[in-house]
Amino acid sequence: MVRQYPYVCNWFDVTDGGTDENGFPIPSEEIARTANCRYEAFKQGNYREFYDENGVKLEATGVIYFKKGSIYPERFRTVTIDEYNLKADVIHSYTGQLNTTVFVQEL
């Protein structure tokens, strides 16, 4: 049987600190996240271009697909997929009708 999302993607989300009921600050913390995914590297010489908020061009070297409704990393988070030996930064994401598409740039 073919598995549509055979890999596990790992990343860290940072929570907002905020304040407690007495007004004392609560420090932000990193939370480890995982989700099943499928990774596809772009073929030799192919890439997609995106731009950050400063107008710097970012070239996506691959794409990660997540099942519709599952959690996925936000822009500029660093993700790893151990099965594929991948470490990359998220540069763009899009939630479509069937899945969420995340474009990444390998580090």
What layout of secondary structure does this protein have?
Layout: E1 7-14, E2 30-41, E3 48-51, E4 57-60, E5 62-67, E6 78-81, E7 86-95, E8 99-106
Antiparallel strand pairs: 1-2, 1-6, 2-5, 3-4, 5-8, 6-7, 7-8
Could you please describe the fold and organization of this structure?
There is one protein chain. This protein is about 0% helix and about 50% strand. The chain has about 110 residues and is mainly beta. It has a 6-stranded antiparallel beta barrel. It has a two-stranded antiparallel sheet with strand order 3-4. A hairpin with a 3-residue loop joins strand 7 and strand 8 (about 100-105).
Features:
single chain, 107 residues, mainly beta, two-stranded antiparallel sheet, 52% strand, globular
Q: Give Rg in angstroms.
A: 16 Å
Task: Name the structural class.
Answer: mainly beta
The description of the largest β-sheet is: 6 strands, antiparallel, barrel
- Overall average pLDDT: 90
Count of helical segments? 0
What's the count of strands? 8
* Span of the ends, CA to CA: 33 Å
Give a quick precis of the structure.
The chain has 107 residues and is an all-beta fold. Helices cover 0% and strands 52% of the residues. A six-stranded antiparallel β-barrel has the order 1-2-5-8-7-6. Strands 3-4 form a two-stranded antiparallel sheet.
